[in-house]
Amino acid sequence: AQRVTQPEKLLSVFKGAPVELKCNYSYSGSPELFWYVQYSRQRLQLLLRHISRESIKGFTADLNKGETSFHLKKPFAQEEDSAMYYCALSGTGNQFYFGTGTSLTVIP
Amino acid sequence: DAGITQSPRYKITETGRQVTLMCHQTWSHSYMFWYRQDLGHGLRLIYYSAAADITDKGEVPDGYVVSRSKTENFPLTLESATRSQTSVYFCASRRGTGANEKLFFGSGTQLSVL
To answer: How far apart are CA B14 and CA A56, in angstroms?
Structure first.
């Protein structure tokens, strides 16, 4: 069963424009939600987690339990934001599930 | 993070051969994971391990075998490689739970099965 859905495989925005990467999840318990990012030639790394309610590199993500969504947002995209973004879920079974990923390109 | 290393970085093999991908971490994290990364599928969990000698299947375990005799090592074996197993494989270890929960990834192994 698909637990994490990222509907957009590719997303292009202009520099300075707002960006939103969508993530929806399906899980019966209380999952922990994360965004991981893979910059070119770098390892996958944690961007932010919902439980910390933090803003990293200008990105924020709000967990909406009613809509089962955890969309990633940034008001003004920068060229260095170009990367592959994965939404991830950690469930009670100690497994980590990832979505299919969204490749973000910020156009100068 | 240099604390988790994968080898080899690239591997080419033939259908039917056995291949082992290595993963080593220096933090003594209990949980370790193997994923494969494919276009259109993202990262899919193959196997994971909660501790030494404790392993469990993920989403796509068929054709793979894992072992964990020591906390720091988590090798992944393809018993009889098939072309559908051509992929990029990532190993990860997990630190903490809840607010401190974080996965650390290796640099990946790009496997081609001819």
So the answer is: 43
In A, minimum Cα distance to B56 occurs at A95
Model confidence at A2, in pLDDT bands (50, 70, 90)?
low
Cβ distance A49 to B99 less than 8 Å, yes or no, reads yes
Alpha carbon of B72: minimum distance to chain A alpha carbons (Å) = 18
Q: Which residues of chain A lie closer than 8 angstroms to B57, CB-CB?
A: none
- The beta-carbon neighbor of A99 closest among B42, B59, B92 is B42
CB A44 within 8 A of CB A38: yes
CA gap A7, A33 in Å, rounded: 17
Residue range B9-52, pLDDT digits in tens: 999 999 999 999 999 999 989 999 999 999 888 899 999 999 99
Average pLDDT estimate for B52-57: 94
Helix (H) or strand (E) holding A4: strand A4-5
Distance of CA A30 to the CA centre of its chain: 18
Three-state DSSP class for residue B50 = strand
Report the relative pairing of strands A19-21 and A45-49 from DSSP bridges. Answer: unpaired
Q: Is the peptide bond before B61 cis (omega within 30 degrees of 0)?
A: no
User: pLDDT tens digits, residue range A3-34?
Assistant: 899 999 999 999 999 999 999 999 877 788 99
Which run of H or of E encompasses A36?
strand A32-38
Q: Please indicate whether, in this complex, the C-beta atoms of B43 and A86 are within 8 angstroms of each other.
A: yes
